[in-house]
Design brief:
5 helices, alpha+beta, 199 residues, 2 domains, single chain, Elongation Factor Tu (Ef-tu), domain 3, globular, 6 strands
């Protein structure tokens, strides 16, 4: 594995399995050492959503704790003050498209390579935890009803009712790599079941 920019690694670690990341502008300056960020559209956010807060001078990762109108309250205090005049924004997952099996699978495969790379040796524990979290999430997206045509398949997105063979085909290798790394038989069994929907 060639050297990976830290920004890309962080992007995968924080945003997977979201399909897309979008930006919402700040409506007012956000002072340091407190948790509230006022944005132009609070409906774009939800509790538990990972975010990157930034302006032209600083940036930091955080997680949404709650939303009240356009005030987004983070789980941790801000480490810097962010200014509208300096282009203050909040990057976050796109709620329109949500989360999906396809980006989760891509992330697992990348992280399995990162886990074995010397560049990320000091981060092995957090990488393994993310792989497990993503693989466990994938299991919740698999159709386990053997009376349905979608049996063994994966929802095309978290809120979708559609199951496509391309998603199953993409997820199988990721689950097998997660199994090889963790020895968790649930991942192997899910990959075997997905074969029924991938052809």
């Amino acid at each position: 594995m060639s050297t990976v920019p830290d920004a890309y690694y962080e992007f995968v670690m924080y945003y997977a399995p979201w399909f897309y990341v979008v930006t919402t502008a700040m409506a007012t300056d956000s002072p340091t050492e407190q948790k509230d960020v006022t944005v132009t559209d609070g409906t774009e956010f939800s509790a538990g959503m990972p975010v990157e807060i930034k302006d032209s001078a600083h940036s930091e990762w955080n997680e949404v704790d709650s939303v009240a109108d356009n005030v987004v309250t983070m789980k941790s205090n801000l480490g810097y003050t962010y200014y509208v005049a300096k282009g203050g924004t909040v990057d976050h997952g796109d709620k329109v498209y949500g989360k999906g099996a396809f980006p989760a699978a891509f992330a697992i495969e990348f992280l399995c390579e990162a886990y074995a790379a010397g560049q990320f040796q000091a981060r092995e524990d957090e990488i393994l935890a993310k792989i497990v979290a993503l693989a466990d999430w994938l299991l919740t997206q698999q159709c386990g009803d053997n009376l349905k045509k979608a049996y063994g398949g994966f929802k095309s997105s978290e809120t979708s009712t559609q199951y496509y063979s391309v998603d199953a085909g993409r997820v199988i290798p990721a689950l097998l790599k997660a199994y090889a790394l963790t020895d968790d038989a649930d991942y192997l069994n899910a990959a075997k079941l997905a074969r029924k929907h991938s052809f």
